[in-house]
Design a protein that fits this description.
Blueprint lengths: L2 H11 L2 E6 L4 H6 L2 E3 L1 H10 L4 E5 L2 H10 L4 E3 L15 H10 L4 E5 L4 H5 L3 E3 L4 H6 L7 E4 L2 H11 L3 E3 L12 H10 L4 E4 L13 E2 L2 H10 L4 E5 L4 H8 L4 E4 L14 H10 L8 H17 L1
Parallel strand pairs: 1-2, 1-3, 3-4, 5-6, 5-7, 7-8, 9-10, 9-11, 11-12
The chain binds 1,3-dihydroxyacetonephosphate and iron/sulfur cluster (SF4).
Amino acid sequence: MSITDRINKLRKERNAVILAHNYQLPEVQDVADFTGDSLGLSRQAAKTDADIIVFCGVRFMAETAAILSPDKTVLLPDLLAGCPMADMITAEQLRQFKAKFPGSVVVCYVNSTAEVKAESDYCCTSSNAVAVVNAIPKNVKILFVPDCHLGQYVKETTDRDIELWPGYCPTHVRITAEDIKKAKAEHPAAVVLAHPECSEDVKPLADKLLSTGGMLKYAKAHNDREYIIVTEVGIIYSLAKKNPEKKFFSVNERAICPNMKLITLEKVLWSLENMQYKIVVSGDIAARARDALDRMLKIV
Ligand code: 13P
Ligand code: SF4
């Protein structure tokens, strides 16, 4: 029996659902029941009838699923699949940040630990950060953590009083303005789609700033034939698969998230065989983090 057949058999026997982020390896995306961006996968996790969620992504995503579906078993196939950006602020650092700005409201990017979510008022993802900030009463100061690049984009778009935390994604900041200029020279007709985690000198060179799910929707809905994709390279696989008549060019082959790539088909199988590795968020942290996530899910 092939690995995929063994996964399919166990998925059925255990009533499991496999969720995969758009940056996952092609074979992992292919075996998943749902692929998507952070928001789409959070929604899937919140509404699934399955008993087990195998989360093919990084730890904060599995933690979010565990917080939103406390009665399900959430498995992360490799415990080392973390997100360095999420580890760039601790709950204690956030408490100190808040103490400097009494009366402020905290918006935390979903790329954060459960403890940091628990210290926050609202969660957001790259696809709804602007809408979440716009839903907060005017004239309050907003503390945006941990991604300063997404935060800067939100600040410019909403024109709100926002303090940024200096976190960033090591994969996205590897992409330079020079990379985009070179790709544009090679593909002058291509539309440039960039992720808001990119740095400030890169973003003005994009035609659109979108979450990974937003890029997939945009490419499907538009007639343009060529796209320069300014984010982690894994998404090119699903873009090309869903739009076989269009061309997608990666802007920098080194824009690879090593954590996302830790999940392999074998590890998905072992995860279902051995029920590993269980991600549990409990007690007060889970309840407070859920409040921040629920506030986000009610807005968009
Ligand atoms: P998306 O929500 O756009 O998929 O982004 C998640 C992420 O980790 C980007 O680096
Ligand atoms: Fe974290 Fe960046 Fe990897 Fe996304 S691409 S999971 S932000 S390290």
